[in-house]
């Protein structure tokens, strides 16, 4: 359970300039000069490395498996017993089993055999309805039916905020209350309490592969719960069940527990556990509620004066960032005030299951009416929280302004009741309140503004790196924001502003989290050096060149996104950039070397002279820098930041400034309008998904006998229909939020067809002509009807009378 407000820890607003005490002693040449650079936190693939949503189930499955690899562990049996025993007393459970009509020494309606042919199809679907009835019977008996209800999900569950891929657990437990964004009993993730899947008991024997498949399946569902700290779920067979717990540190799974006959009490306890009316007991954060209009309300605590720098125990990697004095061991009592923030809109989520799971909202401070960005993530206990890193770079023009942050509740390990395996990456829930800025940089309305925004963001990056010794390490199209009003910049605001310093580090640090955490970042913008190290499974120390190169890939991504005449035969750069590390490395390595030679492929991709010059200059610069030796000690990094980096930043900034200066005199740059780009990110998914589906069906063997057709209709066709219907439903769901679709008016379409609509003049002429010839119009109608009824399929040879009939119809068409 979550603690009360009094146990929650608030952290102070980051100062505008870093305190002197945060400076590292490693800057002293006599300090860490002989020490090697701390090993970088190892990279880990997963859903958070992707910049766009998923449209392909196989891609999602691959990334989820990578994300969950090594993160699933057995649930400590003592912890499972404690969880199940705490829900109700044995007396209460026995009373229910005596009272219900669904149990008589065994669950009467749940079949023990799902393989024998009968009135219902064979398989695990035979247990769905009986288990759902047991669920709702238990909820009713224990007075939970007003706030909890179980459904058999015969169709996919809509993803309101996620990607295009829909999922369908076999049973969905939904709820009502202040934690849910949907208050009806509908089948939606916004009202999800838990989800249940059914399997055949014989599949338990295939434990290795089946277990991974089941965890994948649950992972797809669990990632759509952004305000849940953890959740419980169950897999049932006709005889046994297994309890799962998903949280941001991994997956716990229990032994298989028999729920037949004398084990019936375990089933009752498990259902009460996953359906608990206590929100915090099933992983809801009780500092978040939902208003009647389905908007989140976040309650936080903000530290107020008097303020003293304290050691708060959030990080073991903070020797450079936190005052290390005798006073900090006995901090003064902190004074806090309550802050209530109401959601304006959902901005973005990584929808990752394990790790930081970053989610952002635009919110309003209810007390001041000011609009802010609220960022939520799960921070590794050994990593420096972002507000402390931002404290080091406050005051730099073009760096996001932080107001305050708060650590929420307990470490996840404390909620696991002892089930923490060796090498466990512990995390805590953390929220950060930031200044609001404009759109992400990929929403391009003015190409000149795009280049100026990139230039300003690079300037901010230079000051953070060279002057404050902070390296960002996660430059992407989402982490650079335009000014809120480019024509009226606020204090400290630039045309392009850097956000998301959560992976930032001090370059003079002497320790790292490489043994206790993993690093994700956005692969699409990783440098060639990072990707090469990932391909070869080597350790790699990032420096400023890797971040600078990421700015190039941001520009390339945007140019590819807005290309008005994309080459359909050329696979999208963006797809390869966020593919495997090998695919991204191959593409980017070739790209840089082609820039040095000015090859035809580069020139044809960027025909505009200003854009071509900028891309060639930047690509050639980074190709040359790949050959430079890299620092091996913290002192060398600091020296590089002082002596070498300023010249490199200047060269890159000069290339941008040259392009900016040339734009007014150059021909206009043709880009697709932003509304078309954003529209294309959703609507063509329908055609893409349908086309991919039917291509995959081409390789499926076709039935050759009536029995085969019947079997196909029973076993395979329902799944195929469901896939097609899911694709249509996804497109329908997205339409209200997408830009309007422009279609030609129907009269224009029919004007171009074989049977044009009559204009008013034609109608008058036809009426006048009709009055002269009496029944001519009726004859004409009759002839047309007769003609159309004489259609002959192309596979049947036409009789000799066909040509005259066709000729007559043509003449009638001309007359019309």
UniProtKB/TrEMBL annotation:
InterPro entries: Kinase-like_dom_sf (IPR011009), Pkinase_fungal (IPR040976), Tyr_kinase_AS (IPR008266). Residues 218-414, 421-558 form the Fungal-type protein kinase domain. It comes from the Eukaryota. Gene3D superfamilies: Transferase(Phosphotransferase) domain 1. PROSITE patterns: PROTEIN_KINASE_TYR. One of its GO terms (molecular function) is protein kinase activity. SUPFAM superfamilies: Protein kinase-like (PK-like) (SSF56112). Signal peptide: none annotated. Residues 37-51 have a biased composition (Polar residues). Residues 13-36, 777-798 have a biased composition (Low complexity). Residues 1-57, 753-816 are annotated as: Disordered. PANTHER family: FUNK1 11, FUNK1 6. This is Fungal-type protein kinase domain-containing protein. It comes from Panaeolus cyanescens.
